[in-house]
């Protein structure tokens, strides 16, 4: 069943005038010829800090043989439905599911409608109140009863809709119902995320909701010294939030282990299972007992990933909020401007000038690290408060940039896709795609840095004839969100081919052969390296 309803996107209001005229160029000096994968300092597993350049990730890790007889039992079903939920008539439940556009595949407990109905312990509710949230979001309303019942699940919901709490609150309950960890034990809950910044942000949520019950957490990621992270792990923590490369390092060295891990979260799960991370994820999951609970979350869920995910999920429930198709957050107005590469700088300059009259922060996404640097410098020269972030910057600089951006009232962050997923920064009002990303999934995550929670935002996208092959996919995303489609974009779509159809829309992004070693990394947009090196 599907409960699609109309959306409130409109589009036209901000018209194309923002983009100003054409011509000019060269103002922000692009990096043509600079190598599209330029600046490869991060190495194959750059961004995660792995040091596996010359070896298989986790090559030193042995797959344990699990003997169910000797595995100590653990509890994972703590869900005790609230009497209001138990007594709620069927048609009311159906109305709620329909109004929230909740689609369920598999057998799931009924959704809750109010925080009090989740039967969270008082310490969790107190923190929810402190944060000032009125109602659970749709993914929380349906996700909590499933997660608290100990079921494996996949939760797909738009960007900015509260997926972090959807897995974090059940994690604290899960942990509080386990034997306390002893010396030498690893974490009970493991949360895997694709970037350092996202891992750190997730830990902040873990701290907010865990501190009142002494649930300890640590965040481990590459690019920072190992010593302090190792000490935290050895001290004993209930929750580890990690990027895969560094975690594998620590597992190989025996600094920690996953023998106690019974609650596993893959945040940005489709990204974690793409061909850049999947071998590492496989290595990590092998170390976790098979009767673990697994929860995967994202705003996008391509079907090729679904098959891969099923390797790790066994029985599971899937919930989708909103369209079952690839879809963007409808609180974001999407404006696409068709232009040529040499017009982008002038257009960016005009656009920033106009946006400077408005409140709020801006994120500009560019394709390469070098372009990020060039654009940042150029914008700064024109007097804007701009900062750049990408995988070649060292950790302290990345930390500083994000901290400053969070604090600023009208800052401009120029970023590669390192900032595309999961980041939740208050008051980002505008996202500008200086370069169109590699896929419409990436597009959805990038623009999703605005319009968080119940806020609104606007995304501006420069789209050139070179991007024609992605035009049809983009039109589908725009149409689903009731946004205007520029006839020029439709013309490019006719020219560009690609799009539509069930073959991963010709992108070859995930189009490698599983189950045989002959992986095809030769997609037209991607190189293997590109996946983890932004
Ligand atoms: N029930 C709620 N009511 C209002 N705001 C909420 C609620 N739950 C979470 N939020 C807030 O919504 C914002 C977005 O949450 P979160 O980062 O978890 O989104 P997400 O769904 O994970 O997005 P993304 O797909 O981009 O990762 C956060 O600032 C969070 O504090
Ligand atoms: Mg998230």
Based on CA atoms alone, the radius of gyration comes out at: 23 Å
Strand content: 5-15%
Distance between the termini: 39 Å
Unreliable residue stretches: 1-54, 499-530
User: Approximately how much helix is present in the residues?
Assistant: 25-40%
The helix/strand class is alpha/beta
Number of helices: 18
Judging from the principal axes of the Cα atoms, what is the shape? globular
Bound ions, cofactors and other small molecules, one mention each: adenosine-5'-triphosphate, magnesium ion
How many β strands by DSSP? Answer: 14
How would you portray this structure in words?
- This protein is α/β, with parallel strands linked by helices.
- 34% of the residues lie in helices and 13% in strands.
- The chain has an 8-stranded mixed β-sheet, sandwiched between helices. Strands 9-14-13-10-12-11 form a 6-stranded parallel β-sheet, sandwiched between helices.
- The radius of gyration is 23 Å and the shape is globular.
- Residues 1-54 and 499-530 have low confidence and may be disordered.
- Magnesium ion is lined by residues 163-164, 267, 422.
Write the layout of secondary structure elements.
Elements: H1 83-87, H2 90-99, E1 102-105, H3 122-131, H4 138-148, E2 153-156, H5 163-176, E3 189-192, H6 196-210, E4 217-220, H7 226-235, E5 239-242, H8 244-253, E6 263-267, H9 269-272, H10 278-286, E7 293-298, H11 303-313, E8 317-321, E9 332-338, H12 344-355, E10 361-365, H13 369-381, E11 386-389, H14 395-407, E12 412-415, E13 428-433, H15 440-447, E14 457-463, H16 471-480, H17 487-496, H18 528-532
Parallel strand pairs: 2-7, 2-8, 3-5, 3-6, 4-5, 6-7, 9-14, 10-12, 10-13, 11-12, 13-14
Antiparallel strand pairs: 1-8
Helix pairs in contact: 4-5, 5-6, 8-10
Bound molecules: adenosine-5'-triphosphate (ATP) and magnesium ion (MG).
Magnesium ion is lined by residues 163-164, 267, 422.
């Amino acid at each position: 069943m599907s409960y699609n309803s109309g959306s409130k996107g409109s589009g036209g209001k901000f018209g194309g005038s923002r983009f100003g005229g054409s011509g000019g160029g060269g103002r922000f000096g692009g990096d043509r010829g600079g190598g599209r994968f330029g600046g490869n300092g991060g190495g194959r597993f750059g961004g995660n800090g792995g040091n596996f350049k010359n070896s298989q990730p986790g090559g030193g890790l042995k797959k344990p043989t699990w003997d169910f007889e000797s595995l100590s039992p653990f509890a994972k079903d703590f869900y005790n439905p609230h009497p209001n939920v138990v007594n709620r008539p069927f048609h009311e439940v159906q109305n709620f599911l329909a109004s929230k556009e909740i689609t369920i595949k598999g057998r799931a407990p009924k959704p809750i409608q109010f925080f009090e109905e989740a039967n969270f312990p008082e310490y969790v509710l107190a923190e929810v109140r402190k944060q000032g949230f009125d109602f659970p979001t749709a993914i929380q309303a349906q996700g909590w009863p499933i997660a608290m019942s100990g079921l494996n699940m996949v939760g797909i919901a738009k960007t900015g809709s509260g997926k972090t709490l959807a897995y974090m609150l059940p994690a604290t309950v899960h942990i509080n119902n386990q034997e306390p960890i002893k010396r030498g034990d690893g974490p009970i809950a493991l949360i895997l995320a694709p970037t350092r910044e996202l891992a750190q942000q997730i830990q902040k949520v873990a701290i907010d909701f865990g501190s009142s019950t002494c649930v300890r957490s640590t965040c481990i990621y590459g690019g920072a010294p190992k010593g302090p992270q190792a000490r935290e792990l050895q001290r004993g923590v209930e929750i580890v939030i990690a990027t895969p490369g560094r975690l594998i390092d620590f597992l190989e060295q025996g600094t920690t282990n996953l023998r106690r891990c019974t609650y596993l979260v893959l945040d940005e799960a489709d990204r974690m299972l793409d061909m850049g991370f999947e071998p590492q994820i496989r290595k990590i999951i092998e170390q976790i007992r098979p009767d673990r609970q697994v929860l995967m979350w994202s705003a996008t869920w391509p079907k090729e990933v679904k098959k891969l995910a099923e390797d790790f999920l066994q029985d599971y429930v899937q919930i989708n909020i909103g369209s079952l198709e690839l879809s963007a957050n409808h609180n974001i107005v999407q404006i696409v401007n068709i232009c040529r590469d040499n017009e982008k700088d002038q257009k960016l300059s005009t656009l920033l000038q106009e946006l400077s009259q408005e409140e709020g922060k801006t994120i500009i996404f560019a394709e390469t690290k070098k372009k990020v640097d060039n654009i940042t410098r150029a914008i700064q020269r024109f007097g804007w408060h701009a900062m750049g972030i990408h995988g070649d910057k060292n950790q302290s600089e990345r930390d500083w940039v994000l901290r400053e951006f969070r604090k600023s009232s009208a800052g401009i962050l120029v970023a590669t896709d390192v900032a595309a997923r999961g980041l939740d920064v208050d008051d980002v009002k505008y996202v500008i795609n200086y370069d169109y990303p590699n896929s419409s999934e990436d597009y959805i995550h990038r623009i999703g840095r605005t319009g968080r929670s119940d806020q609104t935002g606007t995304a501006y996208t420069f789209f050139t004839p070179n991007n024609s092959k992605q035009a049809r996919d983009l039109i589908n995303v725009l149409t689903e969100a009731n946004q205007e489609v520029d006839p020029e974009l439709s013309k490019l779509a006719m020219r560009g081919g690609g799009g539509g159809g069930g073959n991963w829309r010709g992108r070859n992004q995930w189009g490698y052969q599983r189950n045989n070693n002959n992986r095809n990394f030769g997609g037209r947009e991607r190189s293997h390296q590109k996946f983890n090196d932004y």
